[in-house]
Amino acid sequence: MSEVAGSRPDSQGVRLGAALYNGNHARLGDEISRLESAGVDFVHLDVFDGHFVSDIGFAPRTIADLRPLTKLPFEVHLGFDGPLRIMPALAEAGVDLVLMHIEGLAMPYEALRLAGTYGSRVGVVVTLGTPLGCLEPVITLVDSVLLLSRVTGEGAHGSSFDPLVFPRLRAVRELVIAAGTQVDIQVAGGVRHEHVRDLVAAGATTLAVGGGIYRVPDMAHAISEMRDAAVQAKGLQ
Q1: Residue 3 lies in a domain
Q2: What does pTM read for this prediction?
């Protein structure tokens, strides 16, 4: 698949993104500037419909208004019933990558082939309880796989990082290698500094972080520490 935008050589290709949903929604423009200054590689945007996921995320119009404020890639976690119906609006809003829940796709292979025609790069999200065999038929169709490391939509309720993601990461890495393709392997959900080394060692190439950088005194320092941990993990592989 296509090369992942936003990679940084100082972290040996491991990208760190910020989940904007954790920011101040009354000052989203300022939050974007804050993320740029802190040195993130991309902006992770949750787009939820209140049904597939109980929370409500960013609307395409909001994303379109934010798009001119930064050159950072915009990557959407799409928790939506019938996600294909919103894909054209997200592409028009300037989203670089749309990650759709495979659990929300009645015919994943056909849906992903169609999704790839809308203009954004395409990936899939897999929740903790979904068997990873669902990825085998579609792994060559996607640019990215996002493994959730806690229950979808539970971040606001204090749900914590679940170590079940580690063996799942290793399994996806082996699947990608066996398929002979290049796929960005992402993790999101309760990720903090203490998890980075083990996540990268298990196969993660991208981490989307929320409270792990927002609920600390110094965001830039937290990101720098995570980069250092990623480099250490790469050195052990």
Answers
A1: no
A2: 0.91
